[in-house]
């Protein structure tokens, strides 16, 4: 469907956008991972939906998730949504908003059942019900008991199973896919989102999408780090879209390092490996977690385990003095490993030549997940001021958003849950918004101009800097200055280096200006996006003078509830970062000391 | 460090009448994959080289290409195992867009044709899962792991000869759903499957089995479908 001829002609006259490159859909979903596809599927029941994504849907990084999706189904043993809620609050070091967490724990069952009904091939127990396994930080009886069987899984390919099933359902629901279209701008005027502007990677044409509602499900950004579990596509594009539209980001200083990334590669080896009984051993062959979390051991939350590993490495107790420790699965036996952990044994074999049933696997903490993101309320409406005022017709869910259920540290299996659950809620909100009479907006004739200007600059750029070299420097900077442990001096230096890289990016040079599938242009645009929000991570970490969850300041080692039991909101301005704050929603569980 | 020569297929429709081979030399670390080498070329030698990639550990299915004559994922194949000269070409049987990037639309269109989703007449109870025994669930192993990389279908001579052939990937997915104890969609799918462009186009050449990066067996899935049709199960 195209826009009215008159409007398209106006755009064509002003911007040179070809008439057939102006599109009109009720709903435009940006991104194609779990959150995006859940929203697309939900809203496709009543509306004409387009998914616009820089990669084909099944390439999305949701598919790399391994271990499971949390829900207190109690298929294996007693469990309750209140226990799940408590674990999530405590796991997030009391920074999560408890209204959003209550919804997460309460609606989890419904979401998992719906996924099963859609055809997800969950692993099953002897009763034929969805099988469940242990995961870090998920416990019995408000933390008083041991680890609980709460993670629903499909072997160790849970994300893959969910992603493909949802894509299949979107095919059934006739969702329109614009794959390999990279969205470069949100069109927002007077507090309402009117559509998006995108680059078609195939031929470098610029397309304008006019829509009644826009949803962002663009995922995370851990590619700003050198060692990461994330795919090359995880460049935080949605965060840049929000910042460029003048919107704030929330709690960006909280970056999760997954404890078990394959040494030097960073590739994820699921926490499910420890959930099934895997051990962590230092260079002395000792289960060092007893020094850090003597009760929950390897099944303490990720921030706790990642810090423990890093401390062992820093103290010279890595394997042969290297920056790694061992993940040991040998005692689990080949049969269990083959049944429940086939993918990670395949990864260990293919990338390190290690048979995980016979040898321990070297691992190190790997940049994994962003707790922060675009501020939204529990209905997935994007908040213009970060607090109360929603942008009309703009929604976000999943890793690019901050609702905030994960607080200062996410528990494993809560990300797939959040993506599916809040992605679906975004879809439900879109449906309500459309039903309330939201009309197709009129497009401003200058809608595409910022994108056209950026592309003209990039394609004509005559500088001397190579994107790959700048990106490598950024990744090194983030790893040295803003990783598992942080302090003011390192962060200050990191911030300076980020700002130098921002200036050097203006002098970028491309080898070719071809129009056909120019991935050099795509990488340059992605790197520009990284530079937009990375400053907020470092400045936020410097600004927050406490240690909480994944933010661990060696110069401020304690949690400081008096001053910092609040969310950071940050805007990017001409002369740096502007901060504001909002209170944490505390309904039920008052902050307590966090021990495992 | 070891030196490898990569002989890479190049084609830019804006400049080239036809494709050609370009030689690049890389100094590779011992654990480098073909994708690492392609990145090294793109980032340090020639930024115009185009290819798809994302997860770099064999789950997203973006970087399938023909490497030393055999289809596979660039991100998984170690240079050391491939020799000092490595030929890297786009997947065969699909239109080349640029360099190593092919048009995957035929692969996706075939997926749509086989209705890759549960088809059921009954609606499940909203407050619980449908039951499925571990044995019933085990029938989906070796099927649901497909990452849709296109290695199989683009290596299939039957597909090269008949571009309307659904291909091993789509037939494998068809069997994944039909084999599911929760699915009742055989009748809806039989028309497109029991067709000269459907499962009878498979001539058991086994290229798909040989090259699948996930060690799946599309030929077996197709045989299962054929047996089901012959035995009148549909």
Structural summary, described in words:
The complex is a heterodimer of chains A (596) and B (234). Chain A is an alpha/beta fold. Chain A has 16 helices and 20 strands. Chain A has helices at 5-15, 34-43, 81-91, 98-118, 158-172, 237-244, 272-275, 302-314, 334-340, 342-352, 414-435, 449-459, 467-481, 488-505, 519-543, 561-564; strands spanning 22-30, 49-53, 69-70, 132-133, 151-152, 176-179, 181-189, 192-200, 205-216, 249-250, 255-262, 279-281, 325-328, 361-370, 374-375, 381-383, 390-396, 401-402, 566-573, 576-583. In chain A, the strands form five sheets. In chain A, strands 1, 2, 6, 7, 8, 9, 16 and 17 form an eight-stranded mixed sheet that branches. A four-stranded antiparallel sheet of chain A has the order 11-14-13-12, with helices on one face. The N and C termini of chain A lie far apart (56 Å). Chain B is of the alpha+beta class and 234 residues long. In chain B, strands 2-1-5-3-4 form a five-stranded mixed sheet, covered by helices on one side. In chain B, strands 6-7 form a two-stranded antiparallel sheet. In chain B, helix 2 packs parallel to helix 5. The mean pLDDT of chain B is 96. Classes of the chains: A alpha/beta (596), B alpha+beta (234).
Give a quick summary of the entry.
The complex is a heterodimer of chains A (596) and B (234). By secondary structure, chain A is of the alpha/beta class. Chain A has helices at residues 5-15, 34-43, 81-91, 98-118, 158-172, 237-244, 272-275, 302-314, 334-340, 342-352, 414-435, 449-459, 467-481, 488-505, 519-543, 561-564; strands at 22-30, 49-53, 69-70, 132-133, 151-152, 176-179, 181-189, 192-200, 205-216, 249-250, 255-262, 279-281, 325-328, 361-370, 374-375, 381-383, 390-396, 401-402, 566-573, 576-583.
């Amino acid at each position: 469907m195209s826009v009215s001829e008159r409007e398209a002609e106006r755009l064509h006259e002003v911007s040179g956008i070809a008439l057939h490159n102006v599109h009109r859909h009720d709903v435009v979903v940006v991104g194609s991972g779990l959150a995006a596809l859940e929203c697309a599927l939900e809203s496709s029941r009543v509306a004409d939906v387009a998914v616009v994504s820089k990669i084909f849907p099944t390439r999305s990084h949701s598919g790399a998730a391994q271990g499971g999706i949390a829900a207190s189904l109690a298929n294996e043993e007693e469990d309750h949504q209140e226990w799940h809620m408590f674990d999530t609050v405590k796991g997030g070091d009391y920074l999560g908003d408890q209204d959003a967490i209550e919804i997460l724990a309460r609606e989890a069952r419904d979401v998992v059942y719906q996924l099963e009904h859609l055809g997800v091939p969950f692993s099953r127990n002897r009763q034929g019900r969805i099988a469940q396994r242990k995961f870090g930080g998920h416990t019995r009886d408000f933390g008083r008991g041991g680890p609980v069987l709460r993670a629903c899984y499909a072997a160790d390919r849970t994300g893959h199973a969910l992603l493909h099933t949802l894509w299949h359902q979107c095919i059934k629901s006739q969702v329109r896919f614009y794959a390999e279209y990279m969205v470069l701008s949100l069109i927002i005027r007077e507090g309402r989102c009117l559509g998006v502007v995108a680059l078609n990677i195939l031929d470098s044409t610029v397309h304008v999408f006019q829509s009644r509602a826009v949803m962002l499900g663009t995922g995370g950004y851990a590619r700003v780090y050198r060692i990461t579990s994330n795919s090359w596509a995880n460049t935080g594009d949605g965060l840049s879209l929000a910042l460029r539209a003048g919107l704030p980001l929330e709690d960006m200083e909280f970056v999760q390092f997954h404890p078990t990334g394959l040494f030097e590669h960073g590739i994820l080896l699921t926490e499910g490996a420890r959930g099934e009984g895997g051990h962590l051993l230092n260079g002395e062959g000792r289960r060092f977690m007893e020094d850090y979390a003597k009760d929950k051991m390897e099944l303490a939350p990720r921030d706790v385990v990642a810090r423990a590993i890093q401390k062992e490495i820093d103290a010279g107790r890595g394997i042969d003095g290297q920056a790694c420790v061992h993940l040991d699965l040998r005692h689990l036996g080949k049969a269990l490993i083959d049944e429940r952990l086939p993918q990670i044994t395949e990864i260990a074999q293919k990338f390190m030549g290690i048979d995980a049933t016979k040898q321990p696997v070297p691992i190190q903490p790997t940049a994994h997940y962003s707790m922060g993101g675009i501020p939204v309320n529990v209905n997935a409406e994007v908040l213009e001021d970060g607090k109360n005022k929603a942008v009309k017709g703009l929604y976000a869910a999943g890793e690019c958003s901050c609702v905030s259920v994960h607080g200062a540290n996410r528990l494993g299996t809560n990300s797939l849950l959040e993506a599916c659950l809040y992605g679906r809620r975004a879809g439900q909100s879109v449906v309500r918004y459309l039903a309330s009479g939201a009309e197709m907006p009129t497009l401003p004739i200058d809608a595409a101009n910022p994108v056209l200007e950026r592309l003209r600059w990039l394609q004509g750029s005559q500088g001397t800097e190579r994107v790959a070299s700048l990106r490598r420097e950024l990744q090194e900077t983030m790893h040295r200055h803003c990783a598992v442990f942080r302090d003011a001096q390192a962060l200050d230096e990191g911030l300076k280096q980020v700002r130098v890289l921002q200036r050097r990016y203006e002098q970028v040079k491309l080898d070719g200006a071809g129009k056909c599938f120019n991935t050099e242009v795509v990488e340059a645009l992605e790197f520009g996006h990284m530079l937009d929000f990375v400053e907020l991570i470092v400045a936020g970490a410097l600004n927050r003078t406490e240690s909480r969850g994944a933010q661990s300041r060696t110069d401020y080692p304690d949690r400081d509830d008096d001053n910092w039991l609040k969310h950071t909101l940050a805007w990017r301005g001409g002369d740096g970062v502007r901060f504001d704050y909002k209170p944490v929603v505390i309904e039920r569980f008052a902050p307590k000391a966090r021990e495992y | 460090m070891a030196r490898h020569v990569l002989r890479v297929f190049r084609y830019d429709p804006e400049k080239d009448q036809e494709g050609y081979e370009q030689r690049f030399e890389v100094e590779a670390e011992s654990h480098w994959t073909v994708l690492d080498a392609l990145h090294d070329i793109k980032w340090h030698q020639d930024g115009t080289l185009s290819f798809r990639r994302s997860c770099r550990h064999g789950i997203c299915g973006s970087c399938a290409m023909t490497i030393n004559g055999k289809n596979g994922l660039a991100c998984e194949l170690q240079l050391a195992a491939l020799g000092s000269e490595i030929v890297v070409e786009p997947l065969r049987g699909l239109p080349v867009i640029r360099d190593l990037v092919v048009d995957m639309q035929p692969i996706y269109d075939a997926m749509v044709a086989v209705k890759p989703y549960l088809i059921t007449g009954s609606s499940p109870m909203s407050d619980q899962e449908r039951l499925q025994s571990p044995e019933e669930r085990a029938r989906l192993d070796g099927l649901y792991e497909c990452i849709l990389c296109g290695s199989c279908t683009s290596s299939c001579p039957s597909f090269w000869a008949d571009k309307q052939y659904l291909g091993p990937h789509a037939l494998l997915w068809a069997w994944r759903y039909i084999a599911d104890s929760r699915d009742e969609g055989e009748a809806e799918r039989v028309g497109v499957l029991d067709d000269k462009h459907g499962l009878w186009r498979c001539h058991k050449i086994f290229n798909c089995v040989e090259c699948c990066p996930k060690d799946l067996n599309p030929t077996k899935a197709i045989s299962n479908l054929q047996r089901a049709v012959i035995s009148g199960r549909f």
